[in-house]
Amino acid sequence: PVLHVDTTPNTDQVYPAATEVVGNVAAALSWLLASADGPPRWSEAEVAAHRAALRAGWQAGYAPGRLNPSEVVTTVRSASPAGTVMTTDVGSHKIMAGQAWTAFAPRETLITNGLSAMGFGLPAAIGAAVSGPGPVVCLAGDGGFGMTATELAVAARLGLGLVVVVFSDGSLNRIELHQAAMGYPLTATAVDRVDIPVLAESLGCDGVRVENVSGLEKALSTAFSGRVRPLVIEARIDTSQYAAQY
Description:
This protein is of the alpha/beta class. It has eleven helices and eight strands. The protein has helices at residues 25-35, 44-58, 69-79, 92-100, 121-131, 142-148, 152-157, 173-181, 196-202, 213-220, 240-245; strands at 3-6, 19-22, 85-88, 109-111, 136-141, 163-168, 206-210, 231-236. Strand 3 (85-88), helix 4 (92-100) and strand 4 (109-111) form a beta-alpha-beta unit. Helix 3 crosses helix 4 (92-100) and helix 3 (69-79) runs parallel beside helix 10. The radius of gyration is 20 Å and the shape is globular.
C-alpha cells in the first residue's frame, strides 16, 4: 500500500495512494515516526537486499566497452562537489538520472514532471546558477538540448560556470521506445548529429566530446574549479540500457 505524504492532495499523480497525509512534510514524517510502534516490517538486511536489486535493475542492459547512461549519471554525481544543483531535461536520461542521482539537501534536484516539457533543463540550470552561489549541472538529451541550446549565449554572457552534460544518441529515444512498444515504425525521432563542442564554442562556452568513462572523468576533473565559462560535455552514449529498462 502506498502512503502519500505531501503538501498537496494526490489528485493528479500517476499512482493510487491507500492513505494520504497532507500538510507540512517534515512535521508529518516526524509524527509518523513518533507514532510508530512495534518492530520494523523489513529488517536492515532486507532493505539492503532490496536496494541491491534496484541497483542491479538500474544497470540492466549494460554494454561493455561503451559509454552507458548509468555511468554518465554516477560519474557526474561523483565529480560534483557538495551543494551542487542538478537539473535534468526530459527523455530517457531523465528517468535514468531520477532513479539514482543522490540529493543531499532540499532543492538540489530540479526535474519537471507532469507535462514534462522538453527544453526545461538548460533554462532551469541558468536560473539555478543566477539565483544561487553553488555549482550547477544540467543533464540533457540531445533532443531537449537542441530546443534551447542557444541559451548558452546567455549563460556565457553572465559568466556562469555551469556544466551541461548532453546524453548524445542521435534520437528522441523515449519516443522511439514508445513507438516500438506499440508496433509502429520509427517516425520523426531522428536527431541530426550536431558538432556540440563546436556549437558550444561558438556561443562563448567550452566544449568537449567524450566516448568513455575515462574521457568523462577527465572533462569533469576541472569542471568545478572556479569556472567563468559554461562547459558543455557531449557524452556519446550507447542506448542499450534504455531499451532493456524502459
